[in-house]
């Protein structure tokens, strides 16, 4: 198992294959995200959380198959996803793919997006498959590469402040060293003009959100 890469499964709207996931990665389920393991055909190494949304049968089956169970109290200061991300980093991961986590409660969705874009994980390559979109965290150390079909929507959303010096290739409306202000919608609903696009910037941080390619 290559502990430099991890897959974190988290609860949310249904997620179905095909999803390109790294092979030989550590697999961590955040509580109810455990149900995704059977859908995606993944063997789980660790289950983390307060276990309030996972079925006892699924949890017992995972433990019997060799998964380590890390139980946390319901009254805690971090979401199950945050605990799972920290477990991945403790396990040595420097590249994490999060699967799930969209839909349901709006507060959870917003918190998940902010969590992934936070300074705490600035040294980690992060990709998030929500089921309907692919989200990549992009900053001056982590340029984004997008692959897909021309016409697919791509949005650039600043988080934590404005993004400066944004340069794109392969998008219908290109940016050449421009700024995207925090709270501005200028970067929303761009489109792929090629099967490959790139996004880079010199200051700030972006969530690069691509509609999921049709299987």
Q: So, CATH architecture of the largest domain?
A: 3-Layer(aba) Sandwich
Supply the number of helical segments: 4
- Say how many strands there are: 14
Order of adjacent strands in the largest pleated sheet: 4-3-2-1-5-6-7-14-9-12
Set down the secondary structure blueprint.
Layout: E1 2-10, E2 25-30, H1 35-40, E3 46-49, H2 56-64, E4 68-71, H3 80-90, E5 95-100, H4 106-116, E6 125-129, E7 133-139, E8 144-147, E9 153-158, E10 163-169, E11 176-180, E12 190-191, E13 196-200, E14 205-211
Parallel strand pairs: 1-2, 1-5, 2-3, 3-4, 5-6
Antiparallel strand pairs: 6-7, 7-14, 8-13, 9-12, 9-14, 10-11, 10-13
Quick recap of the structure?
Helices cover 17% and strands 36% of the residues.
Can you tell me about this structure?
The chain is of the alpha/beta class. It folds into two domains: 2-131, 3-Layer(aba) Sandwich (Rossmann fold), CATH 3.40.50; 138-211, Sandwich (Jelly Rolls). The chain has four helices and 14 strands. The protein has helices spanning 35-40, 56-64, 80-90, 106-116; strands spanning 2-10, 25-30, 46-49, 68-71, 95-100, 125-129, 133-139, 144-147, 153-158, 163-169, 176-180, 190-191, 196-200, 205-211. It has a ten-stranded mixed β-sheet, with helices on both faces. It has a four-stranded antiparallel β-sheet with strand order 8-13-10-11, with no helix packed on it. It is elongated, with a radius of gyration of 17 Å.
């Amino acid at each position: 198992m290559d502990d430099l890469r991890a897959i974190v499964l988290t609860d949310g709207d249904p997620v179905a294959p095909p999803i390109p996931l790294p092979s030989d990665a550590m697999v961590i389920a955040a509580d109810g995200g455990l149900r995704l393991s059977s859908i995606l055909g993944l063997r789980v190494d660790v289950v983390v959380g307060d276990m309030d949304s996972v079925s006892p049968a699924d949890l017992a089956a995972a433990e019997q198959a060799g998964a380590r169970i890390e139980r946390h109290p319901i009254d805690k200061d971090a979401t199950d996803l945050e605990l799972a991300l920290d477990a991945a980093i403790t396990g040595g991961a420097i590249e994490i793919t999060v699967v799930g986590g969209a839909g349901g409660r709006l507060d959870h969705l917003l918190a998940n997006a902010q969590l992934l874009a936070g300074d705490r994980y600035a040294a980690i390559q992060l990709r998030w498959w929500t089921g309907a979109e692919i989200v990549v965290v992009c900053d001056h150390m982590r340029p984004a590469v997008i692959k897909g079909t021309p016409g697919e929507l791509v949005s650039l959303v600043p988080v934590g402040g404005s993004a400066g010096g944004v340069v794109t290739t392969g998008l219908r409306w290109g940016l050449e060293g421009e700024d995207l202000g925090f709270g501005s919608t200028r970067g929303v609903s761009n489109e792929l003009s090629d099967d490959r696009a790139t996004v880079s910037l010199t200051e700030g941080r972006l969530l690069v959100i691509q509609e999921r390619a049709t299987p």
